[in-house]
Design brief:
By secondary structure, the chain is mainly beta. The chain has three helices and 20 strands. It is 10% helix and 33% strand. InterPro entries: Cobalamin_Transport.
């Protein structure tokens, strides 16, 4: 159906009935002030609150956020009215998540209750807080260590200084330090988790601002590792030919269902700590994921069988637009996913 100006979905329901009366015979709707039309029935098939059925309006991404009187379809969009049985949302228990800084100006204390999802570790909820409340929880950065997991480098732009003032982010639950880190601790219902910025025993922590992106993968030799594995695989490579000591390390990893690329970076560190020692990431809420050095979108890319993923250390200006030195890799990143040899 051709789009006409900025007409809402209700306009096209009328148009479908006019143009195709044998297919779209009629619909019945009740108008509510301030809300618009609520669809009661389509083609004589009525919803029934006793049976908990209703006409759900969806497109390819899921239920529409607006009703037929407010939603304006876009070009190429598929709209479906689906008679659906109402299912109440499952009950989710929560825990309290807080970042607190009473040491460095500007001071701050931000807190929110988060739903507990399965057996997710604490670092998962740090990302969740940034996604859901970006004005309050702006970003964080962390360094990944094999078998130990992530060590928090900054939160809301307030970075630690482990050498000068020995500051760090202390993680507490009911005022008691956690015995494990953000990669291992699984929040429980009713937990009161606090990230406290601390300097030499002076407590508290968080801030605001953007975090610098630093990737630290330090190794010396050139190695290639092939695991004895079956099923679909990808090749993961880290390569540095710019700064001494030079290195190039490569490994094949099994593809696991719908895991993002950062999962395989962690896996390489855990399984081959001699070659893949550490890496640092920053969570950037405008990009809805992590930055690793100069490579963006890493937390959103899901590897597919046969991929060859390469991380290369390059000078920052090499991939600036219109710069003549190199040609940007596919997908506008420095990650040579499925790129030709030498790409």
């Amino acid at each position: 159906m051709e789009l006409v100006d900025n007409n809402t979905l209700a306009y096209y329901m009328n148009k479908a009935c006019d143009m195709y009366p044998e297919t779209f015979t009629k619909y019945v709707a009740t108008y509510f002030p301030g809300l618009g039309y609520y669809i009661e029935s389509i083609n004589n098939q009525a919803s029934n609150w006793r049976d908990k059925t209703f006409w759900q309006i969806m497109n390819d991404t899921g239920p529409l956020p607006l009703g037929a009187s407010s939603y304006v379809p876009s070009t190429g969009e598929n709209i479906m009215f689906n008679l659906t049985v109402f299912e109440p949302f499952p009950f989710h228990e929560t825990f309290s998540y807080t970042v607190n800084n009473e040491v460095n100006v500007p001071y701050f204390n931000h807190s929110v209750d988060l739903f507990i999802i399965d057996e997710k570790p604490l670092v998962y909820y740090m990302s969740t807080a940034c996604k859901k409340y970006p004005d309050v929880f702006t970003n964080y950065s962390a360094t990944y260590f094999p078998t130990l997991g992530y060590l928090i480098d900054s939160n809301n732009g307030l970075a630690v200084d482990r050498n000068t003032d020995k500051s760090y982010w202390k993680i507490l639950n009911f005022s008691q330090p956690l015995s494990v880190g953000v990669s291992s601790y699984v929040p429980r219902p009713g937990d009161s988790i606090v990230f406290n910025f601390t300097i030499n025993g002076k407590e508290n922590g968080t801030g605001h601002d953007t975090t610098t992106v630093v990737t630290t993968i330090k190794t010396l030799a050139t190695t290639t590792t092939t695991s004895a594995m079956t099923g679909p695989k990808l090749r993961y490579t880290v390569r540095n030919k710019m700064v001494k000591p030079y290195f190039s390390h490569s490994v094949q990893l099994s593809i696991e269902d719908k895991q993002p690329l950062i999962y395989y970076m962690e896996k390489a560190c855990n399984e081959y700590p001699g070659e893949f020692k550490t890496f640092s990431v920053s969570y950037k809420q405008p990009f809805n994921g992590y930055f690793v050095d100069a490579i963006n979108g890493v937390s959103s890319y899901i590897p597919t069988p046969g991929d060859e993923i390469t991380f290369r250390f390059v000078h920052g200006y090499d991939h600036l637009p219109n710069h003549g030195k190199t040609t940007p890799s596919p997908n506008n990143c420095n990650c040579s996913c499925k790129a030709p040899t030498g790409g």
